[in-house]
Every structure is written in structure tokens, then in C-alpha cells.
């Protein structure tokens, strides 16, 4: 059993970047789950993680040697409104560990108690959101979508109040950094250009080592490309991020902060997944537009680093931001054509996928099931034919994929059998309140093997109302 060696490179940045803060100790920490495969990838001993010392770290009760816990400062635009000071109100970055490839990984506890940024909150998380983030982030990773990871979920043995008494829990998140667009906005809004420059060079070193320090335009261009790919992947699995605020937009191009979010059931491009998103700002079909708005906020934050002459900096940033739509559409079309078995694009293929989505919207077809069923035998495909138009589409599509090599295999490799559907997550949470984690563990196993059909998991595949 080997104790990990921790460092905290973020703590070496100027003190105005963070506030040192210790997690609040908990009463009775118990392991709900540990991501053993991820732990092995990070070089962490499973035996150590399951020991008193390991559980002490995962619960915030004791810090390993070399760690230096802190809460990061950041600001953000939330639903378009400016919040000048947010920060980690219930999370502690305890440090980084170095894997066998020499890459440093943040280890962050979320739900680990109040920090100076808590704004009178208790800094805790209840069990439901912890289980949701664990399931959805693991699903996203195994679907090939860039994301923060979940190393462990721990119950604390305490009760907190969120619309009534709820059991508290802590999730351990892993990423190369937890830096957001809002982190840049925090310093820019204060006129602290030195901090903006130092933060950018830190991000370049961590996420964009191919760039030279100080290359602000290269940084913006690289992030635009990553976000264009990220959002196209979100859309390809029917994912809706309910709160795409700038403080929830990761500067390394990762999915971060799984608050209100879901994989769509019935296809509806206007679908939202946040009770407070009354205007549809973060609807499924708005995500590619909102990310450009968020990236524009980043561009404004680093404008003086792009060019000291403001008018020139604006021109350069606008040209770079203008590249997003082209990159996004290229990625989106490539991925969605694979979802219908097409690797070699031909004229008219874009219309084929748009017609399918239009018909799915009219027919209220289930997003995940429809695409997966296309790769099944003919009798299953015929069940998708909810209308005459859909029957015509299937006929045209079958003729088109005659020119493709093994289209069914192409589809089965990109269209998942399982995503953690929201109604099942909610049911798993309700069962967990009775200390029953069987459904959670089934959902987790399916999320970690999303393309492998298991007969015993038929109920995890079906939509909440079984129409077919």
C-alpha cells in the first residue's frame, strides 16, 4: 500500500487566484463507490484508497502529504447576468497527482464543506446530485465525450436540508484542471491583466502544450476547436447541459458541472433541462450558439493579450470566433452521418440526416433508441416507421448505405445502447435513500459499457414510456 505523492501547482500561482481552505470533517464517511479503473490509470493504489487514510482523503477528514487544499476564485455570466464573484463554494482542490505518463491531475472534493466563496451556504452536497454527476460523467467518458471524471462517491453520515432532510455526500472529481471561462472573467473584470496573462500561460501549459506561452490568439483558436467538437458530441448523444454559464465552461474543452442535465428521451430540439431556464436559453438546439457567446466573453477577457491595439485585437478575435460555425458543422455532420452508417459523405447526405431529425421531432421518437435500432435487423428497423414519411426515409437511407462498407458496424460503434436516462437516475436516487444502491450500480455498469447490449438490462434501454 503506497501513499500517493501530492503537489498543488495551482497553489504556486499568486494568492489572489484562490483562498486556502480546509475541507470540513465529516461524521461517518462510508464508500458508496470507487472508480477502480480510473484509480489505476492515475497510479493510485486501490488498497490505499479503501484504507482509513484513503477514505480520510476522499471524505476530507485527513489530507495526504503534499496536498495544499484551496478554493478557486472565479466569476461568471449566469443565464446572461454578470456575477462578479462566485468561486468554489462547496469544493476543495486538494492538489494534483502525477500519472505514469507525467501528466498532473487535479483531485477535487465537491460537497466538502464551506469555503470563503460559499455566500452563507453550507458547502455540502446531498446524495442525489452526487450520484447523478457520477453516473453522467462516467457515461460521457465512455461515450467518448471529453469530461471531468469521478473517482469516488462517499456518504458522510450527516443530514443536510435541501427541500427537507437529505443525506450528505461528497464526490471526488478528476481533471487536468478545473479552470473556467469565468476564471478569466474574474481577473479581467478587475483590470488585472498580469493575472489574466499568468492564468492563460498556466492553462496553455496544462491543456495546450503545443502552444507557446503568451500565444493568446492561438489559445482562443484552440479552445474554439475543442468546444466545437465537444458540443457536436453533446448533440450526438442527445445531451443537454442545463446551465451553460461561463463559470461552467471549461477552458480545456471538457464537460464540467453536472447540475441540471440529461440525455434527451423524445427528440425535441427545443428541449431544456433546467427548471429556471424559462426562456430556453440553454435548450438542446441552442448549445452551439451559447458556447460562442461564452467564448466571446473569454475573448474579451484576453483581448489586450491578443493585440495591444484594441481595434486590431477585436478584429483578430472576431475572425477567430467566426471560425466556430464551420468547425462545428463539419464535426456535427461527420458524427451524425456515422450515426446512420455513412463514413464517406456524398452530396445530399446532409439533407438525409436533417430529414431524419425532422421526422423524429414530428413523431416524438426516442433519440437513443431510434439511432440504435437503425443498426438492428430489418424487423426492428420497421418498428421505427412511425409515419409514411419515415418509411420513405428508411427506403432512401437503405439505398444510400449500399455504397458504404459495413454501415451497421459503423452505427453500432457510435450509437449507444445505454445512456443513464433521467427517470432511471431519479429512481436510483430514491432507492439510494433506502440504502439500496442496486439500480445505481446497474446503471453505472451499463454507463461504463454503453455499446454492449446485455439481455438483463432491457429495462435500462427502453424510454420512460415504452411506445414500441
Task: List the keywords.
13 strands, alpha+beta, seven-stranded antiparallel β-sheet, 4 domains, 468 residues, two-stranded antiparallel sheet
Topology:
Elements: E1 6-7, E2 18-20, E3 30-34, H1 36-42, H2 46-49, H3 52-59, E4 70-72, E5 76-78, E6 81-83, E7 91-98, E8 104-110, E9 125-126, H4 127-142, E10 149-161, E11 165-175, H5 181-188, H6 193-207, H7 216-236, E12 239-241, E13 261-263, H8 287-301, H9 303-306, H10 310-321, H11 324-339, H12 349-363, H13 367-373, H14 378-382, H15 388-400, H16 407-414, H17 422-432, H18 438-447, H19 458-461
Antiparallel strand pairs: 1-7, 2-4, 3-10, 5-6, 7-8, 8-11, 9-11, 10-11, 12-13
Give a short summary of the structure.
The protein is α+β, with helices and mostly antiparallel strands and 468 residues long. The protein has helices at residues 36-42, 46-49, 52-59, 127-142, 181-188, 193-207, 216-236, 287-301, 303-306, 310-321, 324-339, 349-363, 367-373, 378-382, 388-400, 407-414, 422-432, 438-447, 458-461; strands spanning 6-7, 18-20, 30-34, 70-72, 76-78, 81-83, 91-98, 104-110, 125-126, 149-161, 165-175, 239-241, 261-263.
How would you describe this structure to a colleague?
It is a single chain. The mean pLDDT is 95. The chain has helices spanning 36-42, 46-49, 52-59, 127-142, 181-188, 193-207, 216-236, 287-301, 303-306, 310-321, 324-339, 349-363, 367-373, 378-382, 388-400, 407-414, 422-432, 438-447, 458-461; strands at 6-7, 18-20, 30-34, 70-72, 76-78, 81-83, 91-98, 104-110, 125-126, 149-161, 165-175, 239-241, 261-263. It is α+β, with helices and mostly antiparallel strands and 468 residues long. The strands form 4 sheets. Strands 1, 3, 7, 8, 9, 10 and 11 form a 7-stranded antiparallel β-sheet that branches. The chain has a two-stranded antiparallel sheet with strand order 2-4. A two-stranded antiparallel ribbon has the order 5-6. Helix 7 (216-236) runs antiparallel to helix 8 (287-301) and helix 8 packs antiparallel against helix 10.
Amino acid at each position: 500500500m503506497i501513499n500517493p505523492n501530492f503537489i498543488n501547482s495551482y497553489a504556486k500561482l499568486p494568492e489572489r487566484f484562490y483562498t486556502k481552505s480546509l475541507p470540513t470533517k465529516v461524521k461517518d464517511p462510508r464508500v458508496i463507490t470507487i472508480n477502480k479503473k480510473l484509480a489505476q490509470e492515475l497510479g493510485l493504489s486501490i488498497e490505499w484508497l479503501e484504507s482509513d487514510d484513503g477514505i480520510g482523503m476522499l471524505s476530507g477528514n485527513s489530507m495526504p502529504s503534499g496536498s495544499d487544499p484551496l478554493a478557486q476564485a472565479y466569476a461568471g455570466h449566469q443565464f446572461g447576468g454578470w456575477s462578479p464573484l462566485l468561486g468554489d463554494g462547496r469544493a476543495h482542490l486538494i492538489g494534483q497527482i502525477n500519472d505514469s505518463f507525467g501528466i498532473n491531475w487535479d483531485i477535487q472534493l465537491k460537497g466538502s464543506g464551506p469555503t470563503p466563496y460559499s455566500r452563507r451556504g453550507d458547502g455540502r452536497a446531498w446524495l442525489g446530485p452526487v450520484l447523478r454527476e457520477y453516473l453522467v460523467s462516467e457515461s460521457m467518458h465512455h461515450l467518448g465525450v471529453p469530461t471531468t471524471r469521478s473517482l469516488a462517491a462517499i456518504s458522510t453520515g450527516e443530514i443536510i436540508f435541501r427541500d427537507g432532510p437529505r443525506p450528505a455526500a461528497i464526490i471526488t472529481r478528476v481533471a487536468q484542471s478545473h479552470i473556467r471561462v469565468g476564471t478569466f472573467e474574474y481577473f479581467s473584470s478587475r483590470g488585472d491583466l498580469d493575472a489574466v496573462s499568468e492564468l492563460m500561460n498556466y492553462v496553455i501549459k496544462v491543456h495546450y502544450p503545443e502552444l507557446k506561452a503568451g500565444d493568446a490568439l492561438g489559445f482562443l483558436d484552440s479552445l474554439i476547436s475543442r468546444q466545437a467538437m465537444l458540443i457536436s458530441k453533446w448533440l450526438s448523444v442527445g445531451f443537454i447541459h442545463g446551465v451553460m454559464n461561463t463559470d461552467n465552461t471549461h477552458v480545456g474543452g471538457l464537460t464540467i458541472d453536472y447540475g441540471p442535465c440529461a440525455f434527451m428521451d423524445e427528440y425535441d430540439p427545443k428541449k431544456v433541462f433546467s427548471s429556471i431556464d424559462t426562456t430556453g436559453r440553454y435548450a438542446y438546439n441552442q448549445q452551439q450558439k451559447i458556447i460562442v457567446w461564452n467564448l466571446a466573453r473569454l475573448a474579451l477577457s484576453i483581448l489586450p493579450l491578443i493585440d495591444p491595439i484594441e481595434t486590431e485585437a477585436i478584429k483578430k478575435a472576431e475572425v477567430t470566433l467566426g471560425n466556430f460555425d464551420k468547425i462545428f458543422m463539419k464535426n456535427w455532420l461527420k458524427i451524425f452521418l456515422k450515426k446512420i452508417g455513412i463514413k464517406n459523405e456524398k452530396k445530399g447526405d446532409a439533407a438525409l440526416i436533417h430529414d431524419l431529425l425532422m421526422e423524429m421531432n414530428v413523431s416524438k421518437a426516442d433519440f437513443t433508441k431510434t439511432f440504435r435500432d437503425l443498426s438492428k435487423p430489418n424487423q426492428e428497423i420497421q418498428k421505427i416507421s412511425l409515419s409514411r414519411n419515415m418509411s420513405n426515409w428508411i427506403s432512401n437511407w437503405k439505398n444510400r448505405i449500399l455504397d458504404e462498407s459495413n454501415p451497421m458496424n459503423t452505427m453500432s460503434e457510435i450509437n449507444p445502447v445505454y445512456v443513464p436516462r433521467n427517470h432511471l437516475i431519479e429512481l436510483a436516487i430514491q432507492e439510494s435513500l433506502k440504502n439500496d444502491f442496486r439500480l445505481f450500480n446497474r446503471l453505472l455498469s451499463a454507463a461504463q459499457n454503453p455499446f454492449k447490449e446485455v439481455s438483463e438490462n432491457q429495462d435500462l434501454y427502453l424510454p420512460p414510456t415504452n411506445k414500441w
